Amino acid sequence: MANAHLISFLLVFFLSFPLNTLSKSTIEPCSNSDSCPALLGYTLYADLKVSEVAALFQTDPFAILATNSIDLTVPDVANHILPSGLFLRIPTRCSCSDGIRKSVSTRYKTRPADTLASIADSIYGGLASADQIREANGISDPVALEVGQTLVVPLPCACFNSTDNFLPAAYLSYVVRDGDSVAAIAAMYSTTITDIMNANAMGSPVVRPGDILAIPLPACPSMFPRYASDYGLIVANGTYSITAGHCVQCSCGPGNLNLYCIPASMAVSCSSMQCSNSNMMLGNVTSRPTSAGCNVTSCNYGGFVNGSIVTKLTTSLQPRCPGQHQLPSVIQPPISVIHETYLAPSAAPIPAQAGGIMPSPKSSVPGTSLPGTFTLPGVSPSTGPAGSTSGAPIYQFARILDVNVFCLVLIFFL
After folding, report:
1. What is the model's pTM?
2. Which end of the chain has the least Cβ crowding within 10 Å, N or C?
3. What average pLDDT score do residues 113-124 get?
4. 138 three-state secondary structure
């Protein structure tokens, strides 16, 4: 009888643990050494400069700005202080390590009062777990962290061949927050519940805070040769990417998923961007109406090879002449966060407008967010197809709470 009462107590005790301790993350198995561009959804734990956020993830501050469509022409923008609670997309390389896809380029130098839990949950916003950091660094005693110790921080990411149902896609690793639902997340990223469920092998549309989902974002792919240093470049719809040593700015959308590259508006020394046998520069397009349609000639970007910018002159006959190319709109560097949206994403938040680096002096662009504000989660509306699915093999795993402990306790008392 005593044992029965004790077992009943243990059942109530363990079942009283919050369900969000059983966080899950989507994993993509892999067996080769290739990598792909991917995105991490990160919420700032404190006010940080753009350069400090970049240092946390060992990435380029201008790559972060471009990925989040923040105007690069703002003076000293890399040292702009971003507000705590701001949601950003962080560009990373998704590699194959230990048979699964993950980003392994991030290093963190410990500070006084750091613990593996605080590093994982606070500083990196739940993108990693304390156990994952411990295992990646072979730490036997997690309490004995040394100040100044450099840790590898493995972060979740996905490639799935940079496609979603055979359409170009970039994958964002998104940490589920309080109040989130699959329906709300799908609405925020202009995708569908079915698409998210298939991409993450979900049996039901149920998520808990701390779960990490792979969100497929419609994107513009590149066709650069394998020997180009920016081979595999893919840009999420409504955003930008900086490449070729800060010399070239590529954008995706609005209106189509064709990559469009022009000279970046940054004061750096660059190789020639003129197309051979023409007076056209990178990004230039000319059109000439004919009786058969419209002859369109363009100077396109072909990748960054051995320190040189490759350009290609292409000519095509199209049914009608294209209008002037429209770039995604930009936002000013955020100085505040609309916390209502952050705390209650299920209440149909309004995504921030897409944007990026403008090649000309700043002007008023319809649809641009109000200066100095940033609506979370900072994702631009996309025009990807509804209901697309991913057929890549994935599985999910539980972390943080070892339920086996509960089973062992029951066996002991039985």
Report:
1. 0.78
2. N
3. 96
4. coil
Mark 343-381 as b/e (b = at least 16 C-beta within 10 Å).
eebeeebebbbbbbbbeeeeeebeebbeeeebbbbbbbb
DSSP bridge partners of 313: 299
Amino acid in the structure at residue 142: P
Instruction: For residues 124 and 57, give the distance between their C-alpha atoms in angstroms, rounded to a whole number.
Output: 9
Tell me whether residue 235 is exposed, middle or buried, using C-beta atoms within 10 angstroms of its C-beta: 0 to 12, 13 to 18, 19 or more. Answer: buried
Residue with tokens 């189509």: 256
Q: How far apart are CA 159 and CA 101, in angstroms?
A: 8
* Tokens 């490449």 sit on residue: 243
Read off the tokens for 319: 């049914």
Q: Is the pLDDT of residue 357 over 90?
A: no
State the Cα angle at 185 between 183 and 191, rounded to 5°.
80
The secondary structure of the chain in percent helix, strand, coil, rounded to multiples of 5, reads 20, 30, 50
Whether 266 contacts 229, CB under 8 Å: no
Picking from 381, 377, 327, the residue whose alpha carbon sits closest to that of residue 353 is 381
Residue 292: strand, helix, or coil? coil
Closest CA to 53 of 77, 26, 25: 77
pLDDT band for 150, please (50, 70, 90 cuts): very high
Fill in the amino acid letter for 146. Answer: E
Bridge partner list, 240? 251
Q: What is the DSSP string of 328-350?
A: PP-BPPP-EE-HHHHH-TTS---
Q: Report the pLDDT averaged over residues 334-354.
A: 45
pLDDT band at residue 22 using 50, 70 and 90 as cut-offs: low
Q: Please, where are the H alpha helices in 122-200?
A: 130-136, 182-188, 193-199
103 or 380, higher pLDDT: 103
**Is the Cβ–Cβ distance between 247 and 263 less than 8 Å?**
yes
Three-class DSSP labels, 86-116: CEEEEEEEEEEECCEEEECCCEEECCCCCCH
Range with top average pLDDT, 14-23, 93-102, 394-403: 93-102
Location of structure tokens 């925020």: 188
pLDDT of residue 381: 32
